[in-house]
């Protein structure tokens, strides 16, 4: 059963969630760097030991990457796109499941959308909108 966030709860959780998101971005960059190293090792004459060492580092990096995704999503937030910087917080609008939407660079939750509508369908929150949990 998902955790439902009020607007206030989502905004209170946001600093910690942003921190976890940034750690995830750093780890993705590290994995990409290791992949590039591994690919370059295949093209040059290097020792099998060097290749195996980088491969192990890559495996550990990928494992850590997925662990960070799990850590982020254990907060109740759903990672929609790491590349586009999109996170959604499950919420309720009346009896309907909706998403409170955050995009990288925003300092607070200002938008929401229906669960079957993506980023392009997001709507601004109204300060007086008591219909969101």
Structure commentary:
By secondary structure, this protein is of the alpha+beta class. Helices cover 47% and strands 20% of the residues. The protein has a 5-stranded antiparallel β-sheet with strand order 1-2-3-4-5. Helix 1 (7-43) runs antiparallel to helix 2 (48-73). The longest helix has 37 residues, at 7-43. It starts with 6 loop residues before the first helix and ends in a 9-residue tail after the last strand. 16% of the residues are buried. The model has no long low-confidence stretch (mean pLDDT 89). Keywords: Coiled coil. InterPro entries: DUF2203. This is DUF2203 domain-containing protein.
Offer a concise description of the structure.
The chain is an alpha+beta fold and 133 residues long.
